[in-house]
Amino acid sequence: MWWIGDTYAGNFGPERSQRLVPLNxxxxxxxxxxxxxxxxxTPMAARYGLWASVQxxxxxxxxxxxxxxxxxxxxxHTALRSYTSWAAHxxxxxxxxxxxxxxxxxxxxxxxxxxxxxxxAQLKALRCTLTLMHGEVVYETAAH
Length: 144
What we know:
The protein is an alpha+beta fold and about 140 residues long. About 30% of the residues lie in helices and about 10% in strands. It is built from five helices and three strands; from the N terminus they run αααααβββ. The chain has helices at about 5-15, 25-30, 45-55, 75-85, 85-90, and strands at about 110, 130-135, 135-140. Strands 1-2-3 form a three-stranded antiparallel β-sheet, with no helix packed on it. The model has no long low-confidence stretch (mean pLDDT about 90).
């Protein structure tokens, strides 16, 4: 929605764009989806997908600040679940990844702020300060 959202909004028009990526109805009806991106094809770090799931805004705002409306949005808790445990389930890897549990791979991203306590509009400005894969540090900012 964020990266090519202006194109979507232009092609689908104002009425159909309101129903694009209906995350809230998915949630209401018990549908679990896996969040993600086409990185490095699109410059879309996870924070943009999380933010777009909550804010439903496009990059340039050519068709207004909220061309996709807000009725289809979800909160950050749900957005994070779509990128973690639900995505692991989609990959048939829920016994190995997706949540912090004994015996699972220690794949962890540490962010510069608490996603649950920042205003939703600030989610796209988050910075990852540390990343662990299989318990090993694979990324760390100099300030960490």
